[in-house]
Design brief:
This protein is an alpha/beta fold. Helices cover 35% and strands 14% of the residues.
Amino acid sequence: MDESRIASDASTPTESGSRLHHRHLLGLRTWSADEIRLVLDTARQFRDVLDRPIRRVPTLRGVTVVNLFFEPSTRTRISFELAEKRLSADTVNFSAAISSVTKGETLKDTAQNIEAMRIDMVVIRHSSPGAPQFLTQCVDAVVINAGDGAHEHPTQGLLDLLTISDRFETLQGLNVSIIGDITHSRVVRSDLYGLTRLGANVTLCSPPTLIPPGIERLSDGGRVRTVSRLDEALEGCDVAIALRIQLERQGKTLFPSLREYHETFGIRTEHLERHPDLLVMHPGPVNRGVELESEVVDHERAIILNQVTNGVAVRMAVLYLLSGHGEEVA
Ligand code: CP
């Protein structure tokens, strides 16, 4: 790796000897533990850059990145844009709502027209699972999945891993519980692949109507189990990741009411008191009073904003490693 491109002044070089075997980031399902560790190690270096008075490096000067967002986003979109700017890339933002998509233009035509303007990388969020994969067949640019339907959200998975690894020496044998709408969550799949690949044990906790049968088989390394009682999920748990109830994806009510959901699956201060070492995470946006009691969102053991901060460094690492400016990309 050419470390001089990471830092404009002296900084710690990357220690990892591994390299990426992927040209695109479509999901974590096929990413090895070494590739994931490389992203996390690189993100830690970029985090040092973000702590400097001048938070910008010339790493991606001359590289053009288009952010194609076909779905609403706050964290991911701003985070990618900041990461690109911090790396000195040229960035263009595309929003479906004010584009020719509203006139019926297809994803393929939209992407090929944008690529004709000579771009290098595309970050895409889309409501259809597989849209980023489809895009790789339409354009030569590097494609990064910023969330596709209920499939994967790989940069969220990576930033969750970085946030957890900041608090624990190793993920090997760590007990992580993911609580909420498992069926409609793209975050859960990326978290599950990443966590189990690094050796964590994962408990999935959800109402029976919000968990797909056989999801345990997505494990690769660590142990995965499913439970339907919150108390069971929190017993012996190191980190609880609450997932947003995605009313917009459900189409119908899969539990009696939000109040009842909160009473049965919501993490409350009483849970933090009962489990004094428990850390709480959430990918956002949080429905306060549903997945988490409002006091829990603001609690010192809720590390939700640490996740957001880490998101910029992780996305800088992903952009850098996939840009071809660092490791040789196969
Ligand atoms: N976590 C996440 O994807 O948030 P946004 O939808 O705001 O990007």
